[in-house]
Amino acid sequence: MQSLSRRLGTLAVATAVATAGLAVCSTAASAKSDLAVGVGSRTVALGGTVRVQAEGDSDDFGGAAVRICIDGRTGRGAWRQLACGPQNHRLQLKLRARHRGILRFRAQLVALTGPHHHTVDRTSAVVAVRVR
Q1: What is the CATH number of domain 33-131?
Q2: Secretion signal: which residues (predicted)?
Q3: Does the chain have fewer CB atoms within 10 Å around its N or its C terminus?
């Protein structure tokens, strides 16, 4: 009888520890980040102005500074960082369409996690603009 009560006590303690562990894990995963990128028009004439805006926020890195950046590429070329804005806010950019084809843009939230060390928190979906 004493063995059964000892086993039930051990089971109750193990259940309580497991429940507490799950509660700690679920609260640790509650950090939020949000990011969106948009363009003024999906089609622009050659020589016209392309307006790109990005908006984002993140608290995934605690007190580390998080900036929003806009990247762009032409056709299938490499991504280039076009501009970075202040911490956790909005960034607007105006570019001149100099070549025909498809321009693609994306936004990234970038955290400064150490001296000269940047970490990408989140990357937005890609938006495209056709230059005719």
Answers
A1: 2.60.40.10
A2: 1-31
A3: N
